[in-house]
Design a protein that fits this description.
This protein is an alpha+beta fold and 523 residues long. It contains eight helices and 22 strands. Strands 5-6-7-9-10-11-12-15-16-19-20-21 form a twelve-stranded antiparallel β-barrel. Strand 13 and strand 14 form a beta hairpin. The longest helix is centred in the first third of the chain and has 49 residues.
């Protein structure tokens, strides 16, 4: 007997055909030992065989579908087949061998997913995505806040290093490098302006931390706002400052003059004259400053004066004579123009030096232009000195936390001129007013970002005045004018502050008290 072993694909295709059409072959007796002949199956035509094969293939595709596999129960499949190839003329005998091994257990069917489950899953995913989006927004806002705080810390550290400069350094550090490190140009310019340098000037910086950074407003400019006018920092380039002020000065003198001889103590022969003079002066000043560069500023000042003098004279001769004079005058004082220039760049533990030049005009009413009576007694008051003056000066600012030390000196040269005028019955010729040397020192201290105060002392030494009266040359005594200065400043806004200054005379020739109120406006 001839048995053919078929491949799995041939077996799958041929098995249904044999099962359907070869029933008689499977039922043939197997106990006949004398013959190996199998009775032939019914013959199919070529067209019938081709149609049957197509039908079987279609059914196999349906069986192999995943949905059909989940629904159908697993069935036993043969492992080996014995067939006779089907020819166009006939179909030979088919022999099917039954499998000897057990069929593997069927797989469990996957649970069916409904539309409601899909909707729930989609809603849950959308909720998770929304929560993740909120978390991303929160993280972004926190990152922005941290970056802003880091910028502020860098700005405070920069300002602290520029102003305090508490430790010596070796390499220079350019402000352009600071901008490259993330510091904004406006922040660098603000810090540089506060110490009077250009933003591109190279400044030496500490190598390491110099302590906790001070508050932003607690800077050198804040500390010197309360110092006397002309001692503060320079006006930044391109900035215009309108600085109106009003000043009140009170001075009084009491003099006793004896013209005669004294025979014995207590017995005098001659004339005794006592005078009591009280002078009140109110000066309103309109000042303007402009920064030509970060190291050069120009200033102009125009004062308007109101003077009121009360003089009481008591003369004792044969009889006592009392005379009282009251005078008032209002007018423009001596206008001034000045320049201030910063000489050096700021360095740690070194002062900032500023040179100044002030020119005083004679726009006010001169003492030789006021009216006099027939006895040569003045009937009016002067509002100016009557002479041109030039004053070079040199001042310094030394930052030394928590204060800023200031000081300076200057020389006022009053230019002599010819009066050539008869006053009373005396001819006044050439007059050389006394020059003056002044010096001051003090410090400014900021208690908080808004309030600061200053303490200082100022002294003026005025040389004698030489006056030609007729054919004689008279010379007055030298004058010493010393005063204690106290100032307060309160910052109203970033561009406006209110300053009060007090001067208390400590010498005989100094005014008793002087009070100055200033409100600068920055544009």
């Amino acid at each position: 007997m001839t048995i053919h072993r078929l491949t799995p694909i041939t077996a799958i295709i041929t098995l249904p055909v044999a099962a359907f059409y070869g029933g008689s072959a499977m039922a043939a007796p197997t106990d006949d030992a004398d013959t190996d002949h199998i009775s032939p199956a019914p013959r199919l035509t070529a067209a019938e065989a081709e149609a049957e094969t197509a039908r079987i293939l279609a059914r196999l595709k349906a069986v192999q579908s995943p949905v059909a596999q989940q629904k159908e129960k697993p069935a036993k499949q043969p492992t080996a087949l014995t067939v006779v190839p089907i020819e166009q003329s006939s179909i030979k005998q088919l022999q099917i061998e039954q499998p000897a091994a057990k069929q593997p257990p069927a797989k469990k069917l996957a649970p069916k997913v409904t539309a409601q489950d899909t909707t729930n899953i989609t809603a849950a995913l959308q909720a998770i995505q929304s929560e993740l989006s909120d978390q991303k927004k929160l993280i972004a806002s926190q990152s922005a806040l941290i970056q802003s705080q880091n910028d502020k810390i860098q700005q405070l550290e920069l300002h602290n290093q520029l102003v305090r400069a508490a430790t010596p350094v070796e390499p220079p550090f350019a402000l352009s490098q600071m901008r490259g490190a993330g510091i904004q140009r406006s922040q660098v310019e603000t810090a540089a302006v506060q110490i009077g340098t250009t933003p591109d000037d190279e400044l030496t910086m500490p190598e390491g931390p110099v302590g906790e950074a001070p508050p932003e407003a607690n800077n050198i400019e804040q500390k010197v706002e309360a110092v006397p006018e002309g001692q503060g920092v320079l006006t930044p380039q391109g900035q215009f400052v309108l600085d109106p002020s009003i000043e009140y000065t009170r001075s009084s003198t009491n003099r006793l003059v004896f013209r005669g001889i004294e025979l014995i103590p207590g017995i005098q022969i001659g004339a005794i004259e006592a005078s009591d003079a009280d002078r009140d002066t109110i000066i309103g000043t309109f000042a303007m400053r402009y920064g030509l560069t970060n190291r050069l500023e120009i200033e102009g000042r125009v004062p308007l004066l109101y003077r009121k003098d009360r003089i009481q004279v008591v003369q004792q001769r044969d009889e006592q004579i009392t005379r009282e004079i009251g005078l008032e005058e209002t007018g423009i004082g001596d206008a001034e123009i000045s320049l201030r220039y910063q000489l050096n760049r700021p360095k740690p533990q070194n002062p900032i030096w500023v040179a100044g030049l002030r020119v005083k005009t004679d726009t006010g009413t001169s003492p030789y232009e006021i009216p006099f009576d027939e006895f040569g007694v003045a009937t009016g008051l002067a509002t100016g000195s009557g002479f041109w003056g030039v004053q070079p000066s040199l001042s310094f600012l030394l930052p030394s936390d928590p204060v800023v030390i200031y000081g300076g000196t200057g020389y006022l040269w009053n230019i002599e001129r010819n009066i050539d005028k008869v006053i009373g019955d005396v001819f006044v010729g050439k007059v050389d007013p006394g020059d003056a040397i002044n010096a001051s020192v003090g410090f400014g201290f900021a208690l908080n970002p808004r309030f600061s105060f200053s303490l200082g002392y100022r002294h003026n030494y005025i040389f004698s005045t030489k006056t030609q009266l007729g054919d004689t040359l008279q010379e007055s005594n030298d004058i010493q004018v010393g005063s204690l200065n106290f100032g307060m400043s309160y910052r109203l806004s970033e561009k406006q502050s209110m300053n009060l200054g007090f001067q208390f005379g400590v010498t005989e020739d100094a005014p008793d008290v002087s009070i100055v109120a200033r409100i600068p406006f920055r544009f």
